[in-house]
Amino acid sequence: MKVIKVLNEKEVGKVAGDLILSAIQSNSSSILGLATGSTPESTYEYLIEDFKKNKTDWSKVKTFNLDEYVGLSPDHKKSYRYFMNDKLFHKINIDIKNTHVPDGLKIENPEDYDKLISKNGGIDLQLLGIGTNGHIGFNEPGTSFDSLTSVVDLTAETIEVNSRFFESALEVPKKAVSMGLTSIMNARKIVLIAIGKNKAEAIKQLINGNISINWPCTILQNHKDVTVIIDEEAASLI
Ligand code: F6R
């Protein structure tokens, strides 16, 4: 696992953004796995700036997002599909047909998402955030390392942390469709980003903890190509 410590959020976005851009430069048909939440915002801003300046061509890139809230339609303002369109897809020249976010309303056969990813050749680079409890995707503590895409329950902690995006914790969906830990481990390269003091314990577990389902992120110790990019606060316990 390669760990890159930088000064602040903007630098996290630059270093992660440059890794994504170099994947696209070496293969214009790259398959990217993408994340939502606060952490990737500086990365997406960096990619949009690059698009304005350098006209990086996204027209053949395909993307697969990690997760979506169950019960929210793609046009719901709090859905992750809406987030991705708003924060990235509508601001670069990606073909929206090449972008995939699990559908929060069609949850009958969630594993079809893994089949679609492998039909497209598998993920070249997976961008990940991390929860304060060590979740990656929405794979909460206790999730089997064998998991594929499935409908998962969010913990009270995740609902509370994510209530900042909603009017109140009561409005946060209690379930999500999430790529599983095996779905994530299948990516050829993984880039995990974290910002802020509240991620410090999860980062410590990710890097130095015993591999355990109590800290889902620790499975990444078994992956051969992981780059962790963190600011000073997230790095404060390592
Ligand atoms: C989002 C996702 C989650 C987040 C994590 C951190 O697609 O899969 O694992 O990465 O909850 O969220 P933020 O970045 O908001 O702290």
From TrEMBL:
GO biological process: carbohydrate metabolic process; glucosamine catabolic process; N-acetylglucosamine catabolic process; N-acetylneuraminate catabolic process
One GO CC term, this protein: cytoplasm
Reaction it catalyzes: alpha-D-glucosamine 6-phosphate + H2O = beta-D-fructose 6-phosphate + NH4(+)
Keywords on record: Carbohydrate metabolism, Hydrolase
Pathway given in the UniProt record: Amino-sugar metabolism; N-acetylneuraminate degradation; D-fructose 6-phosphate from N-acetylneuraminate: step 5/5
Enzyme Commission no: 3.5.99.6
Annotated Glucosamine/galactosamine-6-phosphate isomerase domain residues: 19-226
Listed Pfam families: Glucosamine_iso
UniProt GO MF annotations: glucosamine-6-phosphate deaminase activity; identical protein binding
Active-site residues from the entry: 67 (proton acceptor), 133 (for ring-opening step), 135 (proton acceptor), 140 (for ring-opening step)
Group of enzyme by EC: hydrolase
Cross-referenced HAMAP family: GlcN6P_deamin
Family statement drawn from the similarity comment of this UniProt entry: Belongs to the glucosamine/galactosamine-6-phosphate isomerase family. NagB subfamily.
Function: Catalyzes the reversible isomerization-deamination of glucosamine 6-phosphate (GlcN6P) to form fructose 6-phosphate (Fru6P) and ammonium ion.
Protein known as: Glucosamine-6-phosphate deaminase
